[in-house]
Amino acid sequence: MTSPAPSPATGLVGRANFPHRHLLGIASLAPHEIRFLLDEAEQWAILNRTATRKHDDRLAGLTQMNAFFEASTRTLLSFEVAGKRLGADVVNMHASQSSVKKGETLIDTAVTLNSMRADVMVIRHMSSGAVQLIADKVDCPVLNAGDGRHEHPTQALLDALTIRRRKGGHEGLIVTICGDILHSRVARSNMLCLTALGAQVRVCAPPTLMPAAVERYRVTPFSDFNAALDGADVVMMLRLQNERMDGGFIPSAREFSLLYGLTPERLKRAKPDAIVMHPGPMNRGVEILSGVADDPDRSAITEQVEMGVAVRMACLDVLTRGDRGVAGWA
Amino acid sequence: MGMIAIVNGRLCDPAATNLSEGTLLVHGDRIEAVGSVDFPEDAQIIDANGMIVAPGIIDLGVFKTDKPAFHFSGITRAALMPDQSPVLDDPGLVQHAARAGKPDFWVHPLGAATRGLEGKDLAEMALMRTAGARAIATGRTWIADSGVMLRVLRYASALGLTLVIHAEDAGLTANAVATDGETASRLGLPSAPACAEAIAIARDIALAREAGATIHFRMVTTAAGFDLIRAAKAEGLPVTCGVSPSYLFLNDNAVTDFRTFAHLSPPLRDERDRLAAIAAVADGTVDVLCSGHDPRGPEDKRLPFADSTPGIAGAETLLPLALNLVREGKISETRLMALLAANPAAVLGLDAGRLAPGAPADLILIDPDVPWIVDANKMAAAAGNTPFDKLPVQGRARMIMKGGVIR
Q: Model-level pTM?
């Protein structure tokens, strides 16, 4: 067997590039490990865009289980496409929120899935920490597809990849993240990921939707959206959940839109070449106006979806290398 | 009935300022004499071998009657919280709970202040008192309606019953499981500001002043909370408070990695509040050290953090962790036993927690320096949910006497 070549970017060989069993969050990743995953994703972005037959068989014969304890359409589909493009046998489990809310059921479900000999699991759950709890109980690599308000690492990776492709890098970029930061796992993973990659991150939310001690992420908090936009290179809008708009956290959707809606006019405060991102699905007319979302020069929203598949292919590939016996990854 | 003489001990009378050498003589279920005493030749002699002779620990506010754990730590009596299933809001249930530990352990149930602990209708406090309730408690809940709270305080006061209060404004805490701060934010846990405690304490002191009631805050955990207790005491109000070692030796970093064994109610606070809690024990603001013993198995703890049940199996670590305060020079041995025995007895109106002739012979021998390691897998408690797993500690109870009978 030939020994594997070192990574051109890091000089590290094989498993040293990514010595993790699971991908549970960005918090446990070093900057060079994040960059390694982004580099790995590039080849899949190219394959997905150029090849007529977008297929690779490296996961052939492996079973990928997508266990989604919380409703999802886009992320589930993205993981399914990613797995199938790599040749895995992909099965999906949807669990209604009520049936898995209580007691040992979560652990029991994990043990059940484990007994079916999954080779990789992709898990989403509505409680922070739940995916880690399952990962501790199963014998295969686990990918966190979102746990409560805690983390959504593949979303942060796909956002970082999109930014890198549009802007050439991350160092020194001003990235403004606006919306419901408090309840958002996307915001948490992105704050960790983008600050690790050297960007200057601003977070903007009404005070009722801002987490305590958010500045400890080495980000700058704003409640004034206009100020947060000044000179930004990237504007990332978050989805405002419908259940937050009923008066508990903000008075109404239209008032939120007045203060935090991204309009073409407001966007002029950002750099002329600033890009606009949104993890979807969008509430058009609330946090983002169609004129911004559909502007091909500014909006990177469809590219985010595209990069999502590439990033998830990279994560599925890298996490299963050890079990697949890839040289240098045992 | 014969006498028992405990010799060569260092007597720890909570009412004294220092330990003293001497003999303690037990006759029947009472202490007969203390100090330089003569005892009959046929008395049974126990050589304390230099260990501390102290009154048995009275643990104010436990959630389960768990005798093996209590005996391990030298706890001879415990006040049982009304948060049981079913809730202790009925004389029959109170009577049943009071009998559960006898003869070698005494349970003093705390009656629920309101029916079902729902914060609406007054529970039958006088009937529960007759059945054995030593005080009334709000449970691990907050009576949101100030009108109800005032009526509870007035009614309990007229019956001579202390109200044991849980101080957290539920409007602020709602579904929170942690204190606002970096750790909770990073983990994405629902959290509430620490001032939820001070708001609750301030309201209840004002209502107790209005009602002329005696109140005890079971678990005070924040600097602002201790300041309010200090001010109330300076004013001369009959207000006391307690804290458990968890809040003295852990801060909110302990929940990192979603460690549900560190999921407490009230939640762990930041480092500044932790240091304020130690200062409040040292300066006399805190009256009671308690374990908050609440053994919980995997069905309650091996869950996502926010879905897990709060509480720790605290009985076994109560004494060794409290002894840390003595070793660190924060408090004396006699003050320690005031915190662990005399003061909780006073809150509950018990004739206990004293080292004086006529007091019940509830006694323990404490070996204050013996080292051991907390092991969650080998605890005497009904479950091993301790955030202090693998912690090296010092000190444990060596002999327990309940009512003159050695276990």
A: 0.93
